[in-house]
Design goal:
CATH class: Alpha Beta
Radius of gyration: 18 Å
Strand order of the largest sheet: 1-2-3-4-6-9
CATH topology: 2-enoyl-CoA Hydratase, Chain A, domain 1
Distance between the termini: 42 Å
Largest sheet: 6 strands, mixed
CATH architecture: Alpha-Beta Complex
Number of strands: 9
Shape: globular
Order of helices and strands: EEHEHHEEHEEHEHEHHHH
Length: 262
């Protein structure tokens, strides 16, 4: 079995690669655990002055693993809570990492995948990538990433993304501050490494303190547990269950009128 997450050094950077290309790097429990271990490793890795997160294959990350999600339709609250807490803990680990992080978005970044992109300090994307948070269309709530999204794009665009569930292209995302740059695929990693080397010119302690202050002043008030609860609670309700059942049956969600579908 291939490693779900690859970890290597190049220059001053540790490159962490999601390695489920056959599943479009969808986030299963094992991948979330492996990502958590990789970022914990990067945190204490003296050779890594910055961290680049990217995906193997055509997608950066397609969100939650649908097969695993389907298996939780009748799961008890403890399983759903543990899943939400694991993802919330990973996001908080990346957000508070004392080293700069760069998302090198090599393809579509959707739902939890868009969340991974959003919590990094810097994000680069190939022009053809699409990104967004379509959770509400399944009766889910993108609670864990919501405060991070607000910091980047402001409330108006965040409301559009979160309430419509629409995906936007990389140019739209750049125009609203969700990503920093669009870069051709063949130059994506080179550009990410350039930025990592720029970060490495800063003192390690100075960078760590700057990131600590950024977290403090951004008023990221929600705890890991509160974010996990806000994410888990809708999955225990009938609306989410109905939305997921409709999705897996390739039917419209019960709240969607047939004549409203384009």
């Amino acid at each position: 079995m291939n490693e779900l997450v690859l970890y290597r050094h190049q220059g001053s950077a540790a490159i962490i690669t999601l390695n489920r290309p056959e599943k479009r790097n969808a986030l299963c429990r094992e991948l979330i655990q492996a990502l958590t271990r990789a970022f914990q490793k990067a945190q204490v890795d003296d050779q890594a002055r910055a961290v680049i997160l990217t995906g193997n294959g055509s997608a950066f990350c397609a969100g939650m693993d649908l097969e695993e999600l389907r298996s939780t339709l009748d799961a008890n609250s403890e399983i759903i809570w543990n899943d939400a807490l694991a993802l919330s803990t990973l996001f908080d680990l990346i957000y508070r990492l004392p080293k700069p992080t760069i998302a090198a978005v090599n393809g579509h970044a959707v739902a939890g995948g868009a969340g991974l992109m959003t919590i990094c300090d810097c994000a680069l994307s190939v022009p053809e990538a699409k990104m967004g948070y379509p959770e509400v269309r399944l009766g889910l709530v993108a609670a864990i990433v919501l405060p991070h999204l607000l910091r980047h794009v402001g409330e108006r665009f965040a409301r559009y993304l979160l309430l419509t569930g629409e995906l936007v292209d990389a140019n739209q995302a750049r125009g609203h501050g969700l990503i920093n740059e669009t870069v051709p695929a063949e130059k994506l990693m080179d550009r990410a490494l350039e930025i990592a080397e720029s970060f490495a010119k800063g003192g390690p302690h100075a960078l760590a303190v700057t990131k600590q202050l950024l977290a403090q002043y951004s008023k990221q008030a929600e705890s890991v547990e509160a974010a996990a609860h806000a994410s888990a609670a809708p999955r225990l309700g009938e609306e989410c269950r109905a939305g997921l059942n409709a999705f897996f049956s390739k039917q419209m969600a019960p709240w969607v009128k047939a004549d409203s579908v384009r």
